[in-house]
Amino acid sequence: QLQASGGGLAQPGGSLRLSCAASGYNFDWYAIGWFRQAPGKEREGISCIPNSGTRRNYVDSVKGRFAISRDNRKKSVYLQMNSLKPEDTAIYYCAARRFHSCSFDRDWYEYWGQGTQVTVSS
Asked: In degrees rounded to 5, what are phi and psi of residue 61?
Protein backbone atom coordinates (compact mmCIF):
# COMPACT_ATOMS: atom_id res chain seq x y z
CA GLN A 1 0.00 0.00 0.00
CA LEU A 2 1.24 3.47 -0.90
CA GLN A 3 0.11 6.81 0.44
CA ALA A 4 1.10 10.12 -1.10
CA SER A 5 0.92 13.32 0.91
CA GLY A 6 2.31 16.82 1.08
CA GLY A 7 0.37 18.52 -1.67
CA GLY A 8 -1.21 21.91 -1.29
CA LEU A 9 -1.23 25.42 -2.62
CA ALA A 10 2.04 27.13 -3.50
CA GLN A 11 2.91 30.40 -5.16
CA PRO A 12 4.93 30.45 -8.36
CA GLY A 13 8.57 30.10 -7.40
CA GLY A 14 7.64 28.37 -4.18
CA SER A 15 8.35 24.88 -2.91
CA LEU A 16 6.53 21.81 -1.71
CA ARG A 17 7.75 18.45 -0.54
CA LEU A 18 5.73 15.37 -1.37
CA SER A 19 6.03 12.12 0.53
CA CYS A 20 5.14 8.60 -0.52
CA ALA A 21 4.87 6.19 2.40
CA ALA A 22 4.67 2.44 1.93
CA SER A 23 3.45 -0.32 4.16
CA GLY A 24 3.08 -4.04 4.01
CA TYR A 25 6.12 -5.17 2.04
CA ASN A 26 9.90 -5.04 1.73
CA PHE A 27 10.16 -1.51 0.48
CA ASP A 28 13.79 -1.79 -0.54
CA TRP A 29 12.85 -4.33 -3.23
CA TYR A 30 10.76 -1.75 -5.05
CA ALA A 31 11.45 0.94 -7.60
CA ILE A 32 9.31 4.05 -7.15
CA GLY A 33 7.98 6.52 -9.67
CA TRP A 34 6.29 9.89 -9.31
CA PHE A 35 3.58 10.77 -11.80
CA ARG A 36 1.26 13.68 -12.26
CA GLN A 37 -1.99 14.28 -14.05
CA ALA A 38 -3.21 17.73 -14.94
CA PRO A 39 -6.86 18.35 -15.85
CA GLY A 40 -7.60 17.08 -19.32
CA LYS A 41 -4.19 15.49 -19.72
CA GLU A 42 -2.80 12.01 -19.43
CA ARG A 43 -0.87 10.87 -16.40
CA GLU A 44 2.83 11.41 -17.02
CA GLY A 45 5.90 10.12 -15.30
CA ILE A 46 8.14 12.89 -14.00
CA SER A 47 10.70 11.24 -11.75
CA CYS A 48 11.71 7.79 -10.60
CA ILE A 49 14.25 6.14 -8.36
CA PRO A 50 15.49 2.53 -8.36
CA ASN A 51 15.22 0.34 -5.30
CA SER A 52 18.79 1.12 -4.26
CA GLY A 53 18.32 4.86 -4.64
CA THR A 54 21.65 5.11 -6.43
CA ARG A 55 20.30 6.85 -9.50
CA ARG A 56 17.67 9.56 -9.81
CA ASN A 57 15.77 10.17 -12.99
CA TYR A 58 13.79 13.18 -14.20
CA VAL A 59 11.95 14.33 -17.24
CA ASP A 60 13.16 17.54 -18.79
CA SER A 61 10.23 19.62 -17.55
CA VAL A 62 11.23 19.14 -13.90
CA LYS A 63 14.97 18.58 -14.16
CA GLY A 64 16.88 21.04 -12.03
CA ARG A 65 13.78 21.98 -10.03
CA PHE A 66 12.60 18.69 -8.50
CA ALA A 67 14.62 16.22 -6.46
CA ILE A 68 13.64 12.67 -5.65
CA SER A 69 15.05 10.75 -2.70
CA ARG A 70 14.21 7.72 -0.63
CA ASP A 71 14.72 6.44 2.89
CA ASN A 72 14.29 2.69 2.86
CA ARG A 73 14.38 2.49 6.66
CA LYS A 74 11.32 4.74 6.78
CA LYS A 75 9.76 3.07 3.72
CA SER A 76 9.36 6.46 2.13
CA VAL A 77 10.18 8.32 -1.04
CA TYR A 78 10.19 12.09 -1.28
CA LEU A 79 9.83 14.61 -4.07
CA GLN A 80 11.20 18.03 -3.26
CA MET A 81 9.68 20.50 -5.68
CA ASN A 82 11.31 23.91 -6.00
CA SER A 83 10.78 26.84 -8.34
CA LEU A 84 7.22 25.74 -8.88
CA LYS A 85 5.35 26.94 -11.94
CA PRO A 86 1.62 27.15 -12.64
CA GLU A 87 2.05 24.34 -15.16
CA ASP A 88 3.11 22.06 -12.31
CA THR A 89 -0.49 22.13 -11.10
CA ALA A 90 -1.74 18.54 -11.11
CA ILE A 91 -2.62 15.58 -8.98
CA TYR A 92 0.61 13.83 -8.05
CA TYR A 93 0.84 10.06 -7.62
CA CYS A 94 3.51 7.66 -6.52
CA ALA A 95 3.77 4.13 -7.85
CA ALA A 96 5.84 1.04 -7.08
CA ARG A 97 7.10 -2.05 -8.80
CA ARG A 98 9.25 -4.85 -7.43
CA PHE A 99 12.30 -4.34 -9.60
CA HIS A 100 15.77 -2.87 -9.30
CA SER A 101 15.47 -0.16 -11.95
CA CYS A 102 12.62 2.27 -12.55
CA SER A 103 10.57 3.59 -15.45
CA PHE A 104 8.47 6.55 -16.56
CA ASP A 105 5.90 4.19 -18.08
CA ARG A 106 2.72 4.27 -16.01
CA ASP A 107 1.69 0.84 -17.26
CA TRP A 108 4.86 -0.69 -15.86
CA TYR A 109 4.02 -0.13 -12.20
CA GLU A 110 2.18 -2.61 -9.99
CA TYR A 111 0.97 -0.46 -7.13
CA TRP A 112 -0.36 3.07 -6.92
CA GLY A 113 -1.03 5.45 -4.13
CA GLN A 114 -3.93 7.85 -4.04
CA GLY A 115 -3.07 11.23 -5.46
CA THR A 116 -2.23 14.45 -3.71
CA GLN A 117 -3.26 17.75 -5.25
CA VAL A 118 -0.64 20.35 -6.02
CA THR A 119 -1.83 23.79 -7.07
CA VAL A 120 0.57 26.52 -8.08
CA SER A 121 -1.09 29.89 -8.25
CA SER A 122 -0.65 33.44 -7.10
From this structure: -65, -20
Query: Coil, helix or strand for 107?
Result: helix
Task: Kindly give the pairing relationship between strand 8-10 and strand 116-120.
Answer: parallel
CB neighbourhood size of 9 (10 A): 12
CB 97 within 8 A of CB 71: no
- The H or E element that residue 66 is part of is strand 66-71
SS3 for 108?
Answer: helix
First and final CA of the chain: distance in angstroms?
34
Instruction: Note the pLDDT tens digit of each residue in 90-103.
Output: 999 999 999 999 99
Q: Which amino acid is at 107?
A: D
CA distances from 63 to 76, 77, 79, 122 (A): 21, 17, 12, 23
pLDDT of residue 60 exceeding 90, the answer is yes
